[in-house]
From TrEMBL:
Superkingdom field: Bacteria
Protein name: Flagellar basal body-associated protein FliL
Length: 149
């Protein structure tokens, strides 16, 4: 019986000493580096926007686009405002005012240039590089005759 008690006390003493040794030894280890690649970026998905396409004096149809953008989280908090309304407004302006976008005569469209212009103009309006990337989730054209009342 005494042998079991002595063995139990020995195990407790070794556990306490090893815990103490680990606690004092751990602060000397280097801290693991945090991954900085996407740190601080926030993704925001905007509600779908409907953009009328006007040609020959009447509405020909609507472009329905869903836009997603990434922005620096610490800059959004520093500004005290969200760039979402600016991205939505600039997306509407860019697509609405684009003369090359003709759905009656379809051709390849340079969407990357348009997205870069949206990002650049939003950052100009905000006064700093808040928006890092603008992406499109959905981009459709619905003709006026296909719209249900």
């Amino acid at each position: 019986m005494t042998r079991i008690v002595i063995t139990g006390l020995w195990i407790c003493a070794i556990t306490v000493l090893s815990s103490f040794a680990v606690i004092t030894w751990m602060p000397a280890l280097p801290k693991p580096r945090a991954e900085e690649y996407l740190e601080g970026l926030t993704y925001q998905k905007l509600r779908p926007i409907n953009i009328p396409i006007i040609a020959e004096g009447s509405v020909q149809g609507y472009v329905i686009a869903t836009i997603i953008f990434t922005a620096e989280a610490h800059l959004i908090k520093g500004h005290g405002l969200t760039p979402a309304p600016f991205v939505m407004d600039e997306s509407f302006r860019q697509i609405y005012g684009d003369g090359d976008l003709d759905f009656r005569n379809l051709k390849k469209y340079d969407i990357n240039k348009r997205l870069d212009d949206i990002k650049r103009r939003v950052n100009e309006r905000l006064g700093s590089e808040v928006v890092k990337d603008v992406m499109i989730e959905n981009f459709n054209f619905v003709t006026k005759k296909d719209i249900r009342s």
